[in-house]
Amino acid sequence: MSMQAYQQAAKVSETPSQTEYRLFTEVTRSLIKAKESGERDQGFFKALDWNRRMWSVLSTDCGAEGNQLPKELRAGIISLAIWVSKYSSEVARGDQDIDALIDVNRNVMEGLAMQMRPKEQPSQAQQPQNQAELDAARQKLAAFSAEV
Q1: DSSP string, 62-85
Q2: Domain parsing of the chain, residue ranges
Q3: Is the overall model pTM greater than 0.85, yes or no?
Q4: CA distance 41 to 103
Q5: pLDDT digits (tens, 9 = 90+) for 22-35
Q6: Are 84 and 55 in contact (CB under 8 A)?
Q7: Which of 21, 16, 13, 15 is nearest to 111 (CA)?
């Protein structure tokens, strides 16, 4: 089997969360590479544009009728997408650095990774801890959304 055929087969068997995680990984890797190059060249601006377009698609999807995500989460993603667009313009002008965009993407990747963990039947002792983790993640997203 060729490598290309293998990659295509792997993509077909991905869950939506796995696909999103893979996309965030690729986009974030391009932002990191742009940062590490130290150059404001074509690669730098392509990485910024790719990140902005990814967030724009996420925002559009969250605003679409029939989206199954909770309303609060959709609103948070839309707010982040607006912030990413504005902040990306500031980075492009040289008024800000790219680090905050990388951090936001990494935080989203952490959330996606938590979703992809195998679901276990939690014991009674684990349930409050899991709920506390979920509440902490929600508070973090809400606080970040309030900042932007």
Answers
A1: HHSTT--S-HHHHHHHHHHHHHHH
A2: 3-111
A3: no
A4: 22
A5: 999 999 999 999 99
A6: yes
A7: 21
